[in-house]
Amino acid sequence: DRLVVLISGRGSNLQAIQDACARGQIPGRIVGVISNRPEAAGLEIARRAGLTTQVVDHRLFSSREDFEIALSEAIAKWSSDWIVLAGFMRAFTPGFVDRHRGRLVNIHPSLLPAFTGLHTHRRALQAGVCWHGATVHFVTAELDGGPIIAQAAVPVAPEDDEATLAGKVLAAEHRLYPQALAWLCRGQLVLDGESLRWREFPPM
Ligand code: GRF
Fold first, then answer.
1. From atom 3 of ligand 1, which residue's Cα is the shortest distance away?
2. Nearest 5 degrees, angle CA 175-CA 92-CA 184?
3. Whether the complex's predicted ipTM surpasses the cut of 0.90
4. I need a labelling partner for 50 at 20 to 30 A (CA). Which of 104, 141, 158, 195 fits?
5. Burial group, residue 24, by CB count within 10 angstroms (0-12, 13-18, 19+)
6. Where is this site: Raises pKa of active site His (predicted)?
7. Does the CA dihedral 88-93-96-98 come out positive or negative?
8. Could you tell me the residue ranges of all domains in the chain?
């Protein structure tokens, strides 16, 4: 399968996905990387891996719709099977989400439906949860609300602060996202209406 990865920043998940493609864990390859920020460090990671990159700077567009038209054109050029959001920090309009429905996936740094939105690690610590983690999900019009594909939990230790907890969750993300993308590329699950349909459930 063909993957387009959308980033806004550091790009460590992009790196994990690229590594998983290279070692054959994901039966697919990254055909393009798009950043909405020209200064994203992840662009350098992509270039070093020999991947094709493009910047679609949201600040150059007067409306969200115009930005998304440019983004859709960039994506269409690579005729990808999957649009993989990896630290992409822009919310989409329902129109964009509908156009790419079932092919658009995201990773979020919490055990959804807990802690949608930003600052998830800080909020998890404030809430005093014992377990935190990450979620890969299909993107629907509801922010961080689409059907859940996979989750990884990490225990919260009494001595954890925001930084140590973020590190643990990120390490879990780097295992989780490649696994979920491997299932998707192998056609083991699809988005069917509002919910997931497994064709071949992975062994527990
Ligand atoms: C990750 O924590 C991801 O869950 C969130 O943004 C962060 C991206 O990190 N959506 P990176 O750019 O992949 O290093």
1. 87
2. 35
3. yes
4. 104
5. exposed
6. 144
7. positive
8. 2-191
